[in-house]
Amino acid sequence: MKSKKSLVYPWQPQNEKRYKLIKFEDDNVLKTTRGVLTDYSSLSFHSSFGFNNNVIAKEMKNQINHSLLTFSKFEQQFQTEIANELLDLLELKGHIFFTQGGADSVEHALKISRESNQRRVILSRRKSYHGATLGALQITGDHRRNVFYLPKGGHHWIPEPKDDPDFSKTLNIIHKIGANNISGICLESITAKNGVYILPPTWIDGLRQVQSKYKINIIFDEVVCGFYRTLKPFGFHHYKIKPDIVCMGKAISNGMAPLGAVYFAPKIMTYFNNNAFKTGHTNYGHPISLAALRGVLKYIKQKSFKNKIETNSKILKNWIKEIGPYIAESRGTGFLYAIDLKSPVSHDVFYQNGISIVMNESTLILCPTISLTKQKLIKDLSQLSNVIRRYS
Question: Which of 81, 125, 249, 375 is the most buried (most CB within 10 A)?
Fold first, then answer.
């Protein structure tokens, strides 16, 4: 009997052919009806620490023997403990609000930013992706925002930093809109799927100035760059700035349970001491999801992990240099790189060679599992190199 297509598939027309996942093998290998594929995208950026991470799985299994329910009206001690650990990793003082995922984190960040300073406008960049919920989609710059039902008003584009290195064009936009109308500037610390662009120091200086002078909230979307993707705990740690809001998701649970989080600076939460925090979830800070985060925090504190990522980042950086003659350009740091190909290569070519990788037109977004063994990473990069050289 032929099975009915009852499941709705995201990100594609429903009549497109869909391959089935049979099994996750190794730390970055999946068996599918298309064949065995080596994954170079951490399964869309979130499984940073491998498909079968035993440290994280153990914490989740242990939680099953304890509380499996949560309710937003009551605090549970483990929620506070994990929030404090997350603050330590952020190297910031403030408050943590748990969400269901990355786009959800951005959605809450925008609402709370607007509520706390009673301003409406959010500024963002066209080369960006912040999520598929309505608020996040409004400030997203790629093709996914081309829908008729976006919210109207409350948003304005700013130039790409490479087109405005001294921040003067952005400052002119701020003056035109009126700084007292602008709630925040939301941006990825390092652009992920839309090209891997690192912010120049002079542009960061401009951000700091408007943050201080005009009290505009600086909102960093760390959904992709968080948890050592860029070799530092968070992408904003590459810059001399302390954000007012930080959005987290994906690797926060290694993709093993739905989870996100938002950091809010103390000045933002001051408003809510006597005003209701008008957002939340019934399953706030769910025990299983927080157990996954507890496992992630435990895993990244291991000395062996720190040694592994230092070694692997050097291997990847050297490989980028070696592949240089066969590509048009590369950009990135840590375990996040954009590789601009000299000519377009179809996704099917990579699939046929056993490779699953994120592509954006003629650009490969390389974001491998960051906890692979040295030998496995070298083997995988050799496989990818062979395909790039063949079709360059």
Answer: 249
